[in-house]
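ok here's Programmed cell death protein 2-like isoform X1, seq below lol
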Amino acid sequence: MAAAGKPVLLGLRDAAVEGRPRGPAAWTASKLGGLPDALPAVAAPGPRCGRCAQPLALVVQVYCPLEGSPFHRLLHVFVCARPACGDRGTRSWKVFRSQCLQVPEAETRNAQKQGSRLAAENWCEGSQDWGSDSEETPPPPLTSDPGPDRDGVGAADCTAAQLQALHLQDSTLAVTPRSPAGEGLPGHSDEPQFQPYYICVADEDDYRNSAGLDHAHSLLRDYQQREGVDMEHLLSLCCSAGGDEEYEKTSIKSGDQTFYKFMKRIAACQEQILRYSWSGEPLFLTCPTSDVSEVPACGGCGGQRTFEFQLMPALVSMLSSADGGLTVEFGTVLVYTCEQSCWPVTQQAPMEEFCLIQEDPDEGLFT
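and the structure came out like this:
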């Protein structure tokens, strides 16, 4: 299991996406719904359902460059949202990773010599600035103010926060931009779309240290009462030192413990739609099965995959289409990506990654 204690960023629904942004304003933005944006020289993903063979709908687009990497990096999660399909398994979900260099190739080789270990801890730096306005060019809602250091633009220690604010005029791309399929163009009529909204980012610690959890406690109380568990005792354990350890020793029905831990962790921010923690620990909604220990190796380099982020129950109610014809249900979707974030020099198509879906054991609690 991934190491505990990794920083966690929460994704929250922000303003609606107006029109179809182009260029860096499009692919440096994280969003839910809409159509997928494409990085320069990389085709936009256009997957189809493994069951009905119809185009999949974009659930989220996440711009997430890594510390120690010279690449822009974009992840797309898709689902088959047609009611007639009825398949809620992995065949209806697809995850793709796209990358492109943000520094000249010669400088990239020098950076890679300094080490290939990747991290995302610095994603937290400047996260509170995401969504701030710029007096020059309006950035996407979740960029940071700091720009890349011009004196060290090729260094391997460029932080993810710096990459978040990167614009084409701030660096020289190692590739010649072209117009990949779907970039900056309106979607075809047969492409299913959820209403698009930007995703803003907050540090989980800021919520966990805040007060005002009456609503969250009320939801927990309702659940525990239905399940016949002593809520007052459990809440007292939550608020006491060592509450987790004490709670784990209490006798509760099979499966309740995992669900309770899930609810307790998200209680301070019920509206979170995404939890990002590169190489961190996923938050399971139900007791994990053997599938978690059997995450397949990367199809590109054969290396291990690591947990990167998960989609949360609150997202379900926010995924709506203009005609109301799309629907999707899930508890949480766990996304695993290549630990080395491999990207061959000649790669021009998105690389498929892996996800696990856990169903909601108590759907009414999140609506």
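fwiw Residues 9-210+268-366 form one domain. kinda neat tbh
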